[in-house]
Amino acid sequence: MLPNQSIFVNTIALREAKASSAIENIFTTDDELYRSLSYQEDDYMEGPAKEILHYREALWKGYQDIVANKSMTLGTIIDVYREIKRSHDGIRPYQAEVVIKKRGWGSLVAETVYTPPRGKGVVEKKMAELLDFLNDDEKYPIDPLLKMAMSHYQFEAIHPFRDGNGRTGRVLCLLYLKQKKLLDLPILYLSAYILQNKDEYYNRLNGITGTMLWKPWIMYMLEAVSQTAEYTTDKILRIKALMEKTREIMLENRLAVARMDIPKLFEQPYIRPKNLLSDKIKSINTAKKYLTELESLGMLSKDKVGKEFIWFNTELMGILAD
After folding, report:
1. Cα 14 from Cα 28, distance rounded (Å)
2. Greater confidence, 9 or 95?
3. How far is CA 44 from CA 19, 22, 25, 86, in A?
4. 5-233 domain in CATH 3.40.50.300?
5. Cβ(322)–Cβ(237) under 8 Å?
């Protein structure tokens, strides 16, 4: 329904990144996040915004791996983890004493609530079994949505990395749905539901570990998919309508619609003049002129970041912030 994949890769996928990171208590404001995105360079990013943008890059890297390989591989999982953590680390060594504590990761005073499996070759063996479960539909003829829910628990229980397992596991959910052709792009905003129901998310996970209560967990994940599918579809329809409205206003005011690549105004809420450069708009000054015209109509607002001005698609930001 939308003419440019980048619109969702850079917006809805970024919302997923923000929500998934917030589950791990990594917070940033939308304003911080989109300012960072307008540059897409590490020099302009700091703190939580950088972490969230790394998550988005991990999502895109994993998507490219799935498209190339047609199946989930250990290499893809490690690639995703490394993008999220910006690390060269891999599967945690068997001697690493990784534990999950009641009040969050790394607290020295909190009670240990779960100790992931450890031992020489143990994690590697369990990851191989998990991949076999995901990829072999003849051996495990289970509906893909059920497999996604079951494997997410399995991944978090294995806890294959020193850190970042929660964010990595949520990326893998979307990649698996892409692998099974239930998604064209990894843009299901699954973490929004989990963030709003965070306590239940952890309670359901713990319910399997403690008493093998699989059904409440599976029902929780199916509800997450159902609600976020409706949420994402609503975003698509609203963005599409806003793009049409933008085109109509430009025509009414006799702006150069033919030269303006309208989808570029929707790739991200903050727009730099150089983002509009194309075969039809070849200079920064021409791009600034068009952005200023849209600003005069109230369709964009201008702000200064560093030494340059950037323009803000206020209506798009409103849709994304809901």
Report:
1. 12
2. 95
3. 21, 21, 22, 16
4. no
5. no
